[in-house]
Amino acid sequence: MRFAPDPAWSHRSRRLFATLAPGRHEANPGALRVILLAWFGAAGFPLYYWIFSELFPQPYEDFAARAVGTAIGLLGFAAVHADRFWRKLYVALAAMYYLPFFCTYMFVMNGGSHIWAQCLMVALIALFQFEYRIALPAWLAGTCCAVLCVIARQRGAMLLSYPVLEQLPVHAFLLATLSALRMGRNALERQKLSGLREGLGTVAHEMRTPLASVEANVRGLTRLLRDADDGCTPQRDQIRLAMTRIQYEVRCMNHLIDMFLVNASTPPTRLAPIETVSMANAVHAAMRRYPFRDPVHAAKVSVEVRRNFRFPGQEELAVVVLLNLLRNAMKAIQRAGKGRVRIVVDGGHAIPRLLFIDTACGISPRRMPLIFRRFYAHPPQNGNGIGLALCHQIMHAWHANIRCVSRESAYAIFVLEFPRSGAQ
Description:
The protein is an alpha+beta fold. It is built from 13 helices and eight strands. The chain folds into three domains: 11-166, no CATH class; 192-265; 271-424, Heat Shock Protein 90 (2-Layer Sandwich). A hairpin with a 3-residue loop joins strand 6 (401-407) and strand 7.
């Protein structure tokens, strides 16, 4: 099942993350999960060992099991600096140990006590806030490991005790409810995308012809003005400027239609890499295709190729990603009334990357975790909120990463990191 950004990773979690890890300011849900799981293990296991040993004593406690959980938590502070593969592996391990394994083990070893029954239910709810590809394997593996540990402790008879068995239908109902809620959210998003796809197809079909007609008429009027008289009058200059603006708007509309159609009509399976793409070529293609209003407008954008690199992807989709980032940056400059755009191709970095820097209005920390969420747009009238979500989807299909580092009212830097294929 395709993962949809979960509301649990909200701006409140982002502010907590900034407090717990002040040195990291990127909008990276993977690193956020790692650091939260690290603090959960490092602080939670010792704290609740004291609570359930001294404050509210339980029939059974296991110092060794809590020590392992604490060690996994401490390991997370190192994993947060590792690459994406190790972060994902850590999240899967921590989620499996903390939630289904430890809570199931302690629930059974305490004879199905009501305290641990409630802890286990909370653990299951928390576990299924992760995407299914993590939650289901973690639940199965953790539960099976907990059962094996109970049997190894020669307490297998407790697995068939009444307090333990009576919780099974409750847990089954809980898992069914959580699954239904998750599928309902995904179905609602698919329905919204389906309606958007149909609407965009109709709009694109109806608008292509009048846009082409407007552009053809503007070109014709421009030729007539040039051929009729070479004189220069203020009125003639105003007419030329107006027609230049019309051409600019037509190119913008065609670019938006192209981007919307790609987002609405391309299934995830068609985003997979099919060729090796030169990043420098993709950047130059995006610069040629972007509808700059005039040379002054175009001069606000500079390109620096420190070292070119190639990556597995699709050149047309790479251009779509760059055009969307460039469009967002130019809109930010227009809103702020200041700023420039700098595009840096850095294939010499340890991880080949593209830096997309604008010095306009930046992004507030409160909105940072939301920018890659589908249908989120700020300001609300700024668009449909599908551009950056499409960029994230494309990059994920290429096993690449896109993140943002920003300071409000100062700058925004989109960092696009790619698997190493070859530098030039």
